[in-house]
User: Fold this.
Amino acid sequence: MSFGNHIIQLNDTREMPLLGLGAYKTLDDTELKQGILEAFSCGYHLIDTASFYKNEEGIGRAIKALSIPRSELFITTKLWNTAQRIGNIEDSFYRSLERLGLDYLDLYLIHWPVPGCFCNTWQVFEKLQSSGVIKSIGVSNFSIHDLELLKEASDITPAVNQIEMHPLFQNPELISYCQTNGIAIQAYAPLARGAYANSPLMIEIGKQHQKTPAQIGLRWLVQQNISVIPKSGQKNHIEENSKIFDFSLTEEEMSAISAMNTGQRITGVPEDMVPYL
Ligand SMILES: NC(=O)c1ccc[n+]([C@@H]2O[C@H](COP(=O)([O-])OP(=O)(O)OC[C@H]3O[C@@H](n4cnc5c(N)ncnc54)[C@H](OP(=O)(O)O)[C@@H]3O)[C@@H](O)[C@H]2O)c1
Assistant:
């Protein structure tokens, strides 16, 4: 295992990189290969995908073509809601693994907390982890209530909760709950899909550090020990997003950014989950 210095210690003794490449909506093979190549040359080790993104095969082809040593890769994928409802969790996992061309996965996440299903799903995740085909197991989009239900059903605490988080949507109670209970936070949509790129405050703080608003937003997250998985298909953005470990925000700057919270999600919620959230 060799993920460099910028890592989070997980509750299962493994390490997870603080920075990863998000792959939602990156479908084209050439873009995937170039993006992953650029990311690895800039020090990324983690790639975040999901069966729902329909690019596991392309990512598998890219990592094979690039011959990156397996020990330097941290690959995350996620189980989609339909598989939870149907109950074919193990099959879905092995199909993902095959599409990725891997013989083990670093992190497998329950993509959404499908009510009435996720505790059973978790039992299958535990079984897969104990057989060695998954190193770490976690969840995504889980609320405090969902995590409490899981706690009643199992002794194994999720290693990670991957949730929407950025300066405009901060979810402080959930962050505090996860950090108190040893669950690492991974922020998705950490750039709020561009929604704070023109914020005067972010521009001003950026000027103080010769950084862009995107780098300031990512730094604000990693400085709280929160992992980030910005998505980009562009070489210059992939590189820019990696340059967040060579400066620090002051306490005043951290607080000023924390005051930007609107409590509004930027990303959508899948139709089949809307009634529950
Ligand atoms: N668990 C979940 O339910 C869930 C939900 C949503 C997302 N995710 C994961 O989180 C990842 C990131 O979230 P996201 O893709 O929704 O949003 P995001 O990372 O906040 O934003 C991506 C957008 O920002 C642009 N961008 C990237 N770097 C930039 C930079 N330095 N300056 C200006 N623009 C920049 C990208 O365009 P270019 O490509 O042109 O650079 C893209 O349009 C996803 O790819 C996925 O892996 C998980």
Remarks:
- Strands lie at 7-9, 15-17, 20-22, 46-48, 74-79, 105-110, 134-140, 160-164, 184-188, 227-228.
